[in-house]
């Protein structure tokens, strides 16, 4: 198995466990504004950093067609999205809430010898820099993510991992498109030779981003993420 294929479920576990921990905190936020959560809850760190082009939004939302309300982001004639003042307030609050959930989740002692969240932030930052040469449209819109001045490691790491997941997302879209599949066909594919071929091609396209790390740093990154508490295990 390639390193990209091995580390993917580790990154996904960290991402999804933090999202699950943050969900009960996000609902009251949106109730305060009298709004329903939109796709900005996934794209906040990219939207806070720069306008998002129509092609980038289409790529990032290909599996999740949840919209972003016009009160949250203005859409120009070319389909490019820019946060409104309210949208920026919402996105900043979402980022802060997710960071706070991660900080609480990871407050359990990390096993001795495993890298700290600060070290994982450093490694993830180098991966995002390297991805500028290999990432597709969604990754380009999400990296580097917005990081408030003085932000803690939990907020920074969650934002960077979210962006890093889009590097693989772009690779996966390119892999199934190369096979002539539609998004619905790709979503419904669960096994078999074609699925295996697409997964292998996805790993091949995603793998170059990790070349910036040495072999020992790659294992340090995977082991460090794997050691982060996820709230699911005793």
UniProtKB/TrEMBL annotation:
Name of the protein: MarR family transcriptional regulator
Pfam family, any one: HTH_67
């Amino acid at each position: 198995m390639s390193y990209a294929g091995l580390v993917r479920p580790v990154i996904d576990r960290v991402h999804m466990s933090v999202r699950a921990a943050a969900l009960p905190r996000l609902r009251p936020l949106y109730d305060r504004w009298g709004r329903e959560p939109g796709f900005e809850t996934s794209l906040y760190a990219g939207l806070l950093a720069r306008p998002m082009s129509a092609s980038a939004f289409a790529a990032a939302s290909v599996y999740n067609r949840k919209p972003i309300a016009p009160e949250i982001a203005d859409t120009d004639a070319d389909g490019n999205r820019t946060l409104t003042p309210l949208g920026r307030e919402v996105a900043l609050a979402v980022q802060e809430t997710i960071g706070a959930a991660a900080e609480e989740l990871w407050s359990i002692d990390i096993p001795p010898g495993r890298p700290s969240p600060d070290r994982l932030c450093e490694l993830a930052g180098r991966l995002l820099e390297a991805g500028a040469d290999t990432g597709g449209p969604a990754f380009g819109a999400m990296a580097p993510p917005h990081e408030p001045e003085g932000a803690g490691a939990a907020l920074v790491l969650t934002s960077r991992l979210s962006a890093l997941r889009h590097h693989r997302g772009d690779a996966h879209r390119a892999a199934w498109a190369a096979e002539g599949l539609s998004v619905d066909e790709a979503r419904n594919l669960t096994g078999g030779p074609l699925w295996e071929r697409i997964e292998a091609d996805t790993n091949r396209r995603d793998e170059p981003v990790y070349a910036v790390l040495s072999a020992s740093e790659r294992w340090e990154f995977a082991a460090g993420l794997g050691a982060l508490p996820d709230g699911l295990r005793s």
